[in-house]
Design a protein that fits this description.
The model is unreliable at about 5-20 (pLDDT under 50). The chain has about 475 residues and is mainly alpha-helical. The chain has helices at about 1-30, 35-55, 60-75, 80-90, 90-110, 115-140, 145-175, 185-190, 190-205, 220-240, 245-270, 285-315, 320-350, 350-370, 380-405, 415-445, 450-475, and strands at about 215, 275.
């Protein structure tokens, strides 16, 4: 009888463990809906910009703002959004962020003027900034060790990479399908059903995390950081468009001064009843510092590559947006296959796997240097080069988050997720500005598309070299 009772107890305990484990993976699916739709909305607009510009008869500067203000709102409020989640609960902030993102997406789709669209895009970016950091923190808190942690962060990386490719594809598809009179509106309205489902699932499935209501939110730090980031990101996203006027340099100098004041302020908050916006203990963790620096270079080249190759295909080679979006699917399928393999073998190969991915991506770029000439390359050549890039990217991106946060304690999860997400979005804007800016600058000075693209490819390879060395530092370094 005693043996039977023990067996039943063990069986019940095993069932409970299995139920909790299964719930974690279901919750991960729900959590990942937020970063998916936020990344899709960065890239889905790229292919649709010419149609939006024609519809509103808008200037180049205004249509570029449709992209820029989303990135500004997104990047500037990420750290603030993360700390708000720490104070009031990550589930609550995630659900409200999803609701706001869905509502602002509908407003973007119904915008009556280019000015309205620009304003709604800014608030759409702010909404994303409040919901996305909660996802990183929730993953960090729910998957703390072993292969489960590698897989969870790997799935986060897969979703980000696939969302970028999906956004490029859907932008071309909706314009081509022409289901409504102004088909570009669908790129925003598609978020309505997805957002509603995400809100319902998050509200019903997720459990609230611990909150820290005792310490006050550092409002002074919020204002200082917000103003500093605006002074960095706005000139980086718009400076080239306006020919780098004097005010762009003044803003960048102001940003440097603002960040200096901000970090001095953080030191003064230690030991007070205010919760610092960024916990300075984070920067004592060597793997975190090196990891986010690798993230800066990776997302800079990743976003600049997707932009420049889209411009090359459509304007350089006169390939239609829908055909170009189909070519990008080759990259997406290769990325998906490589990502699934990488998250299952991250523990076995470690940093070497990410470094191998850098080498594979460099091979893709060198192949494009050789094959992408003045005349349109064979479709097979384009597809093969994109497949190689996707395979390499799938080895790197899913594990970058895990590498960056692997030594971060749970107490710093909220702060680290905000810093990580901010660096990711900032690097996206900086990469498009610097590497994409070089591409457009060469075009404006009379270079043809394939020459400007070739120079960009050499810059991408240099970025990969820096990432390779940084990853080696993580492998050899200790905190």
């Amino acid at each position: 009888m005693k043996t039977d009772r023990s067996v039943r107890t063990l069986s019940a305990d095993s069932s409970l463990v299995a139920e909790v484990s299964n719930r974690r993976w279901w919750n991960l699916f729900v959590i990942l809906l937020a970063p998916m739709i936020s990344v899709v909305d960065i890239f889905i607009v790229n292919v649709s910009l010419p149609t939006i510009q024609s519809y509103y008869a808008a200037s180049d500067a205004k249509v570029q703002l449709v992209v820029a203000v989303y990135l500004i709102g997104y990047a500037v409020f990420l750290i603030t959004g993360s700390r708000i989640g720490d104070k009031f609960g990550r589930k609550k902030v995630l659900v409200w962020g999803l609701l706001a993102f869905t509502a602002t997406s509908v407003l973007c789709g119904m915008a009556g003027s280019i000015g309205e669209l620009i304003a709604f895009r800014f608030f759409q970016g702010v909404s994303a900034a409040f919901m996305v950091p909660q996802t990183v923190t929730l993953i960090h808190l729910n998957f703390r060790e072993g292969n489960d942690r590698n897989r969870a962060f790997g799935y986060y990386g897969i979703v980000q990479g696939m969302a970028a490719i999906l956004g490029q594809f859907l932008g071309g598809y909706f314009i081509h399908a022409g289901w409504i009179q102004a088909p570009w509106r669908l790129i925003f309205l598609v978020n309505l059903p997805i957002g509603v489902v995400a809100v319902i699932l998050a509200a019903l499935s997720l459990r609230e995390s611990s909150q820290n209501r005792q310490r006050k939110l550092d409002i002074t730090g919020v204002v200082l950081l917000t103003l500093s980031l605006v002074c960095i990101i706005y000139p980086l996203t718009q400076g080239r468009e306006y020919g780098w006027p004097w005010w762009s340099y003044v803003l960048l100098l102001g940003a440097a001064a603002g960040l200096n004041i901000f970090f001095r302020h953080l030191k003064r908050t230690v030991g007070t009843n205010r919760e610092p916006l960024i916990d300075l203990h984070l920067f004592r963790i060597r793997s975190f510092n090196t990891g986010v620096l690798a993230v800066f270079f990776y997302f800079g080249l990743h976003n600049a590559f997707l932009l420049t190759c889209a411009i090359l295909l459509q304007k350089g080679y006169q390939i239609g947006p829908y055909t170009a979006s189909i070519l990008f699917t080759a990259l997406g399928w290769a990325y998906m296959f490589s990502s699934w393999w990488s998250i299952r073998n991250a523990g076995k190969y470690g940093i070497r796997m990410l470094q191998a991915g850098c080498v594979i991506m460099a091979v893709s770029f060198l192949s494009q240097v050789l094959l992408f000439g003045a005349s349109v390359p064979a479709p097979l050549s384009i597809v093969v080069c994109y497949i190689v890039f996707g395979l390499g990217s799938g080895l790197v991106l899913p594990s970058l988050l895990n590498v960056s946060l692997r030594d971060v304690p749970a107490a710093l999860a909220g702060s680290s997720s905000g810093v990580y997400s901010t660096i990711q979005q900032f690097s996206s804007a900086a990469g498009v500005s610097m590497l994409g800016g070089l591409f457009f600058s060469m075009l404006s000075h009379g270079s043809d598309y394939h020459l400007a693209y070739r120079v960009s490819l050499y810059c991408f390879i240099a970025y990969l070299g820096v990432i390779f060395l940084l990853l080696n530092r993580i492998k050899d370094g200790k905190n």
